[in-house]
Amino acid sequence: MNKDSRMLQIRKEKINSLKADGINLYPNDFKPSCSFETLKNIIKVRPDSLGEAGDQFELAGRMMAINKIGKSSFARLKEGNSQFQVYLQKNELGNETYALFKKLDIGDFIGAKGPLFKTRTGEWTLLAKEFKLLSKAVRPLPEKFHGIKNPEKRYRQRYLDLIMNKKTRQIFLKRSKIISLMRQFFEQKKFMEVETPMMQPLAGGAEATPFKTWHNALGMEFFLRIAPELYLKRLVVGGFEKVFEINRNFRNEGVSTKHNPEFTMVEFYQAYADYEDLMDITEDMFESIVQSISGSATIQYQGQTIDFKKGWQRLPMIESLIKIGGISTEMINDTSSLLDFAKKNNIQITKKDRHGKILTKLFDILVEPKLIQPTFITGYPVEVSPLSRKSDANPELTDRFELFIAGKEIANGFSEINDPGDQYDRFSMQVEQKNEGNPEAHIMDADYVKALEYGMPPTAGEGIGIDRLVMLLTDSPSIREVILFPHMKEKSV
To answer: For a surface tag, which of 111, 218, 386, 483 has the fewest beta carbons within 10 Å of its beta carbon?
Structure first.
């Protein structure tokens, strides 16, 4: 029997003994009078009211450390991010109650009532006049000294990770704050928050492979949404001119440090705006959030200094391929030359790919990893932008941008197509690509085209990956660090 199994057996034997003594291991009749943080504020504001003859408090928490000294013991309780010390004496509690406490373990939840006093080291501590077991832990916590270092165990048992690793707790507290700040930003800009279907009869709004499901009552196939875009734009048609949604998207793709098949995005749409307006909004929002989270517009991410102060670079894709990607001006419009270049550089591109798709693939490999500072890449080809408005200056390109930070795509935005005929033709192009073997090509959504036929004002919309933004602002190298319960392969027995 290994050490863990032996410790578990000892715990179970102890639990059986307590049950035999008639001890309720899981009562629900103890109510804390205040949180640890509130108590610490009381100590700070009015210490004169405290002391053994002063106010009494009821505290509850998980025991993270126990120091038993004969007829007295110290226990350190944990509540959220805070800890507080409790002092328990046999003389105060009585033989029976103190004997019960001595049978308890680290990880158990207890409640205690009493006044405060200062220890010899100057630490304010609760002197327990009353004590109660609130929840008995069956399994022992990991050793505090070692914590949980193994990433797979941390992801599979996130509850232990949150108990033992303060850094993990801080990541998710910061994530919550980021989303709250984002919501406040949109509300201040008079956007309305909405909710659109998570299950959709057609998988649209982005180029991606969907997850399929079946609706028994309706007797039809549905798809977990890959994006809310087409529903949000239907709302613009309906007269809601500034909308946003923070929610999950699902894409049946690979898993990596940058990808999770279930991820969180914010999408927002504004009537009478264009893609340049969106870039301005994005700069404003990001600088504001970073300033609130970090206290500065500058952060450190994986050893790199990233400056979020407004005035980000805006660079056309073709120009970036020449300046950063090393593609010559003569080659940029020659499909055959680009294919030869890709082959020489071991970049996988098929001859079936259209010119715009080839440019985009080369960009992904040659340019994207080098975009460390916030950079808007503009002018995406029509072939890879089925929902983006064509550029008036060059109809082969679109009024679209993607935002890159630290070599990662963070956002995608564009001026929307509101010409139903153009949208129909673009869907048809995508259907053709799907028939040619592209599983991620967009489908034909006739109902959405019908919605556009009722008229949509000039509109711009954008999607921002919240998980990746949180990665940046928490200095996390993997997307799994910022998702509470990331998807994992089934554990082999």
So the answer is: 218
Domain ranges in the chain are 3-135, 163-324+367-482
CATH fold, domain 163-324+367-482, is BirA Bifunctional Protein; domain 2 (3.30.930)
Query: What average pLDDT does the segment 124-148 reach?
Result: 89
- Across residues 381-389, what is the average pLDDT? 93
Rounded to two decimals, what is the model's pTM? 0.92
287: left (phi over 0), alpha (psi -120 to 50) or beta: alpha
The closest of 225, 243, 130 to 186, measured between CA atoms, is 243
Per cent of the chain over pLDDT 90 is: 80
Angle at 204 between CA 200 and CA 207, to 5 degrees: 140
> E strands of 209-282, at which residues?
211-215, 220-224, 242-250, 262-271
Residue 412 pLDDT class (50, 70, 90 cuts): very high
Tell me which H or E stretch contains 50.
none
Residue 299 to residue 374: CA distance in whole angstroms: 12
The residues, ordered by sequence, that sit 6+ positions from 469 with a Cβ below 8 Å of its Cβ are: 178, 286, 289, 410
Q: Which amino acid would we find at residue 62?
A: R
